[in-house]
Design brief:
Distance between the termini: 103 Å
Structural class: mainly alpha
Number of strands: 5
Shape: globular
Number of domains: 2
Number of helices: 11
Largest sheet: 3 strands, antiparallel
């Protein structure tokens, strides 16, 4: 405001302090970035939940038969070497994974190593998870850290010596752990590559549907050809496209329907572990992803292998 010679006053433009203007601008940018970060976190958690279902984390790490808390572990997993109990993967800091860093979680998924540096038993399918992308692994961790923490101590394995020793697993990994993120095949379609990624990196179909050798490693020439002694001692069928012993006569739609509902083309339905896997995992997957899995399975090498119960 200035006073002119006649004594009257008049208003003059006020000079805005540049520091105030900068502060206002930064505060607005902060709001935008925080909103974007919150949205990104929510999306990461949502994608992680999807992966936890597709990757069977919820199925294996929940003791449904004893009304266990979700993801708190304790589910018995029967193997030819003894019984292993799934671990607590809720964010409880004392009994779960609440203190795990991104690097430690990624190392467990890729290399099968616990936070304390000890080897993980391969009942945890890190031989498959090792092929997941970095982003998918971190999204999975984001989801696990968003669930309710449950204080529940992990149960020790019920295995005799030397099978309960962990240090020999370093040699086992040298033989059977092939690290490396899944690489799409350029000559294949996006649908084929998506199906291949889900089958070979996330859903770990081969881990259940492939016979194992005397050391517990997958028999490479029999990938997905089925076995009478699968996880928890159950028979797992041949899911290669062999027309006489596998699913070669199934349509893609029939494969998708089984993964969504458990219903087979002949009117029968799945039982046992596969029923649980569908109930708590596969049925939540998108039709697009299930169709990609079906498309991929129909292209793998057909293997003639009649799988029958060992009781027959």
């Amino acid at each position: 405001m200035r006073v002119n010679p006649s004594g009257a006053t008049r208003m003059t433009p006020t000079r805005i302090n540049s520091g105030i203007l900068l502060g206002l601008l930064l505060s607005q940018l902060t709001v935008v970035f925080l909103a974007a970060g919150a949205s990104a976190d929510e999306n990461n958690i949502k994608r992680g939940e999807y992966l936890a279902k597709a990757g069977l984390c919820i199925t294996c790490h929940t003791d449904y038969k004893n009304n266990g808390e979700p993801l708190a572990g304790g589910r018995p997993i029967t193997t030819p070497f003894g019984t292993i109990y799934s671990t607590n993967i809720t964010p409880d800091p004392d009994t779960g994974i609440g203190n795990w860093t991104d690097a430690e979680f990624t190392r467990a998924m890729r290399k099968g190593v616990r936070r304390d540096g000890e080897n993980l038993f391969p009942a945890f399918p890190y031989t498959t998870y090792t092929h997941m992308t970095d982003q998918d692994i971190l999204d999975l961790k984001a989801y696990l850290f968003s669930v309710k923490p449950v204080r529940q101590e992990n149960r020790p394995v019920a295995m005799s010596l030397p099978f309960r020793w962990r240090f020999p697993l370093s040699g086992w990994k040298w033989l059977y752990l092939k690290e490396g993120v899944f690489q799409p095949e350029g000559k294949r379609s996006p649908r084929w590559n998506r199906g291949a990624y889900l089958v070979s990196a996330v859903a770990h179909c081969a881990e259940c549907h492939t016979p194992r050798d005397a050391f517990g490693g997958l028999k490479g020439k029999m990938i997905m050809a089925g076995t009478p002694d699968g996880p928890e001692g159950e028979l797992t069928p041949n899911i290669t496209p062999d027309s006489s012993t596998g699913i070669g006569d199934w349509t893609a739609e029939e494969i998708v329907e089984l993964l969504k509902s458990g219903d087979k083309p002949d009117g029968d339905n799945v039982q046992g572990l596969m029923e649980e896997i569908i109930e708590h995992g596969y049925r939540y997957m998108t039709d697009k992803d299930l169709q990609a899995i079906a498309f991929y399975l129909r292209t793998i090498k057909p293997i003639r292998n009649e799988v029958e119960s060992e009781e027959n």
